[in-house]
Amino acid sequence: MEGSYEACAEAAAWLRARLQEPPRVALVCGSGLGALAQELTDPQSFDYADIPHFPRSTVQGHAGRLVVGRLGAGPCAVLQGRFHLYEGYSPAQVVMPVRTLALLGVHTLVLTNAAGALSPGLAPGHLLVIRDHIDLPGLAGRSPLVGPNDERFGPRFPAMTDGYDPALRRLALALAPPELHARPGVYVGVGGPSYETWAECRLLRRLGADAVGMSTVSEAAAARHCGLRVLGLSLITNAAPGDADEEEEEGGGGAGPAAEAAPPGHEEVLAAAQEGARHLRRLLLALAPRLAEGARA
Ligand SMILES: O=P(O)(O)O[C@H]1O[C@H](CO)[C@@H](O)[C@H]1O
Ligand SMILES: Nc1nc2[nH]cnc2c(=O)[nH]1
Questions:
Q1: Where does a purine D-ribonucleoside bind (predicted)?
Q2: What is the mean pLDDT of the chain?
Q3: pLDDT of 207-243, one tens digit each?
């Protein structure tokens, strides 16, 4: 039952019975980004604990609440909190909210996250508009699409070359406030929950990733399976350890940047995300009319 079509359908029916208006657009808030829900007018709020079959949020900065209201003129659902594989949830549980919202009639999904910078051009406060992703858990067999395929969600072999909608991406890049230094790039999803070692960062950079996090990729795969349009936004909250740090450490006895660079921590991630959310909110409002347009792919 966990994460099954029937579970999602029950959750969707429960919500439909209570909603003034079913959402057409949905937004998943990354760590510390829950304030994005404050842009909704006429909000109705539901604790995950009350929605049938919804998992519980266990991570600080993920409130565990679904808020449904209007973003601009269009009906929109905001998930204040997502589920991660490292919490012990199965891939199907992680994507259960996305599938539930698809069954409610959502056609466009905005996935936000807090991420570490791998590319030298990215710094805390910057926005990576996701052009493509590397789904490391998925490549290793932990995709939400593994198992018997339920055709009511989508086809056995969905394409992912068009995972992130190019038109929405271009629009987000054009409308992002200058404070976000928005640029397109590749997000790599890892299992977590430990942050990366230097060697792992070097590996991920060589794989072609610009930013790293522990979410988003499973949700994007499930969303595309259901035919949703996806926009992915990574707010950079910290710099992942760089090659220079390691070289300095090896050659210089620890007196260089390696000795000074603070290791990433969730408190720092939350603080940077809350700061960046101010600008992200402006971007979402600017995007609202175009998010509301459209239909399933
Ligand atoms: O991806 P979101 O949910 O924003 O959270 C990010 O922040 C946490 C680490 O600080 C991890 O869960 C990572 O994935
Ligand atoms: N894996 C990973 N997730 C993050 N989430 C926010 N920052 C980071 C990071 O540096 N690494």
A1: 196, 238
A2: 93
A3: 999 999 999 999 999 999 999 999 999 999 999 776 5
Within a domain: residue 297? no
Tens digits of per-residue pLDDT, 132-175? 999 999 999 999 999 999 999 999 999 999 999 999 999 999 99
Task: Give the containing element (helix H, strand E) for 211.
Answer: strand 211-213
Task: Give the contacts of 17 (CB within 8 A, at least 6 positions apart).
Answer: none
Is the residue at 286 inside a domain? Answer: yes
Please give the distance, rounded to the nearest whole angstrom, from the Cα atom of residue 214 to the centre of ligand 1.
Answer: 6
Residues with pLDDT less than 70, the chain: 242-261, 295-297
Cα 286 to Cα 280: distance, rounded to the nearest angstrom: 10
Domain count for the chain: 1
271 is a domain residue: yes
The position carrying tokens 């998010």 is 291
Closest residue by CA, ligand 2 atom 10 = 116
DSSP states of 154-208: --SS---TT-S-HHHHHHHHHHS-GGG--EEEEEEE---SSPPPHHHHHHHHHTT
**Which residues line the annotated binding site for phosphate?**
31, 62, 82-84, 114, 215
Two tokens at 266? 């969730």
**One-letter amino acid of 184:** P
Type and span of the H or E element at 8: helix 5-18
Flag whether the ipTM exceeds 0.90: yes
Ligand in nearest proximity to the CA of 32 = 1
